[in-house]
Design a protein that fits this description.
three-stranded mixed β-sheet; 41% helix
Length: 332
């Protein structure tokens, strides 16, 4: 049975990246050449799939290629052809410590493609609560999705957002288009245990390394989103969700504003106790509140976009989505 890298290579191939699948496959076959990385994977204390261990490995290899210290690895990533086992095996042997260190930090994708799904959910919410919104993001990373009001969208032919924005989000849309409604964002704040500053070079490189190397359009969109975030820095607290969220929710929102808690591929890295505490904290409010989640199902067989409103606690499964937002199967 394949290990975590080989298992996720099959998933990645189904998601459309033959190159990343080849990188992960070669990485698994060459693990004996990188004893520190091999030991880290073998002794991983948590759920390798939920902790995205394979994506951490792929990010580390991409970071090495982007640094330019290994010409053969750089050429492999530039052309996406070659002797994967030899080149990746040599890179793993030479940079074993770097790879193992990189993998101990949680992924920082901060994929802005997911903002398309969040925007569609916000338009749906406007039909339920006809109010402007205040966004609170859990696991915000660099806060790029908190800046979703600065992007342009084509959601099944529904064009919303800032038409002149260099960040254009147009997922493949399946099903009926969402109902176009105005989304007015009056305030944004987020929290992360390890927030990244968009203006910091190392932070930008870490985010770029998590973009699949065979998706240049996605990388270009990220570059534009980082430039916007450098000019309009999102407000992100360096804190734990269990401290930050109850404190935020205890503070009444401005009159005539609906507070919205959003999280995109973030709660999978939290413990079951933390996820339960988030739900409990939101269920105890007595003002207009909503929650938008873009997360794997418990079985990790699909990514669901959900909208929950409070105080009624009704959960709406709005869409099934590609993990990075490439396509959205809209249920409405």
């Amino acid at each position: 049975m394949p290990g975590p890298l080989g298992q996720y290579a099959l998933v990645v191939r189904d998601l459309g990246s033959a190159f990343v699948a080849a990188v992960l496959g070669a990485g698994e076959r060459q693990l004996t050449r990188a004893p520190l990385t091999a030991a880290l994977i073998a002794d991983w204390p948590g759920d390798a799939a939920a902790d995205a261990l394979a994506m951490r490995f792929n990010g580390a290899l991409h970071a090495l290629a982007r640094r330019g210290d290994d010409p053969m690895l750089g050429a492999l990533y530039a052309t996406r052809t070659g002797d994967f086992d030899t080149v990746i095996g040599d890179a793993m042997a030479a940079a074993d410590g770097f790879i193992a260190d990189w993998m101990q930090q949680p992924p920082q994708t901060n994929e802005v493609g997911r903002a398309g799904a969040v925007m569609a959910a916000l338009m749906t919410l406007r039909g339920l609560y006809d109010l402007p919104v205040e966004l609170l993001e859990l696991g915000a990373s660099a806060g790029l999705n908190l800046n979703l009001g600065h992007y342009a969208y084509d959601l099944g032919g529904v064009r919303v957002g800032r038409s002149d924005s260099p960040v254009r989000i147009a997922p493949e849309w399946r099903g009926s288009p969402p109902v176009a409604r105005p989304v007015e964002i009056v305030a944004t704040r987020g929290v992360d245990l390890r927030p990244l500053a968009a203006a910091d070079h190392q932070a930008r490189e870490r985010l770029m390394a998590y973009v699949w190397a065979d998706e240049p359009e996605r990388a270009e969109r990220l570059r534009h989103a980082l430039a916007i975030a450098s000019d309009v820095p999102p407000q992100i607290a360096c804190d734990d969700i269990l401290r930050w969220l109850p404190a935020e929710l205890a503070r009444p929102p401005a009159n005539g504003v609906c507070r919205v808690v959003i999280h995109t591929m973030a709660l999978q890295y939290c413990s079951p106790a933390t996820r339960a505490a988030v739900t409990e904290a939101m269920a105890t409010t007595d003002y207009p509140l909503a929650r938008i989640g873009f997360e794997w199902t418990d079985a990790r067989d699909a990514v669901h976009l959900t909208l929950t409103t409070y105080p009624d606690g009704i959960v709406r499964h709005l869409a099934t989505c590609h993990a990075y937002g490439h396509w959205i199967d809209w249920h409405g």
